[in-house]
Amino acid sequence: MRSQINARLKLRQIEIVIAVAEQGSFLAAAHKLSITQPAVSKAVQDVEQIIGHPIFDRMARGVMINPFGRAVVERGRAMLSLVERLTDDIGLIEQGQAGTLVIGALPTAATSVLPPTLGRLRASNPELNIRLVQGRTAELMPQLESGKLDLIVGRLYELETSHDVHRETIYHEPISVLARAGHPLLGRPGSAGAELGKFGLVLPSLEQRLGQEIDAVIAYSGLEMLAAPLRSTSISFIRELVLSNDYVTILPRLMLAGDLGRGAVRVLPVPMVSGSRPAGIITLRHRRRSPSVGALLAALRDHLRELRATGLLDEDGASPDALTGS
User: Fold this and answer.
1) Is 214 helix (H, G, I), strand (E, B) or coil?
2) Contact 132, 118 (CB under 8 A)
3) Contacts of 111 (CB under 8 A, 6+ apart)
4) CA-CA distance, 192 to 156, in Å (whole number)?
5) Is 165 helix (H, G, I), strand (E, B) or coil?
6) Is pLDDT at 168 greater than 90 in this prediction?
7) Which helix (H) or strand (E) holds 202?
8) 3-state DSSP call for residue 178?
9) Exposure check for the chain: N or C terminus, fewer CB within 10 A?
């Protein structure tokens, strides 16, 4: 019986049965649905044949629904409601306002630009399901290519990839020397580089690509460390150590953009040779960009414009004088 109903029962038949139940006659149902009365009669007969029971008791003037008919109508209304919701969902997905968006995030992006960006995206697209997968580029690329990720957001490292991979620069991740507000090195004339060795330095671990990159920037910038830095794989730990002590850190400035914006962290006046460090998105050329990806990019660009407007980021990612404390 179940397989027979699953295979043969159609939504249009359910719609007609519901109309008959509501109108009380085949003729009235036909008028409501703008179809012929024989079409209504055939649909009802087909449903009765499928379930093996009559669903209406024929009366002299119209029909009266019976318990089998009430079961069909009750479940049928739920089915039609789900179909209506499916139609609504498809429309929202086409507009980028619903569905599921799976984002691959590199560590810096995951702790900097993405939290406020996703807040904006959620506010404008409350029905959109969002999943974030954090990892390194080498870990995320296979998931992008297999279709598990819609895109990757973060630093655009040079990697050997297929021609199908599209890299789009949207912003830059300049590296800066950071310290808490009120740090003794703030407000001193000239560069604070020569004084850095007097204070503890906390850096990302050399096991991380970011840690290796920061070490290279330190060498290119000619900074001399008098003592071995404290290293950690946890950006949260580095942040708390800087906020609660006189420790200094060297990080992509956007990783602490929230603290910079609130004035809890400042950029020390130390010239850094970090290059442009492009960041943005990685997608696949053959895959059509979904509306939800477009909505994410719009939210990201809005957030970046806000950062530039507040002086936390300028057009080429360089460090503005307003943040150096000089």
Assistant:
1) helix
2) yes
3) 235, 255
4) 30
5) strand
6) yes
7) strand 201-204
8) strand
9) N
d(CA 84, CA 185): 63
Closest CA to 15 of 65, 79, 59, 71: 79
Q: In this structure, what token pair is assigned to residue 52?
A: 């093996």
Domains of the chain: 2-94 (1.10.10.10), 98-173+277-323 (3.40.190.10), 175-267 (3.40.190.290)
SS3 161: coil
Write the DSSP symbol of residue 227: S
The angle formed by the CA atoms of residues 271, 276 and 279, to the nearest 5 degrees, is 130
Which stretch of DSSP H or E encloses residue 45? Answer: helix 37-51
Largest pairwise CA distance in the chain: 103
pLDDT digits (tens, 9 = 90+) for 83-123: 876 776 677 666 655 678 899 999 889 988 999 999 999 99
| Bridge pairing between strands 98-105 and 127-134 | parallel
- Taken as a whole, the chain contains a residue count of 326
Dihedral, CA atoms, 45, 50, 55, 60, nearest 10 degrees?
A: 20
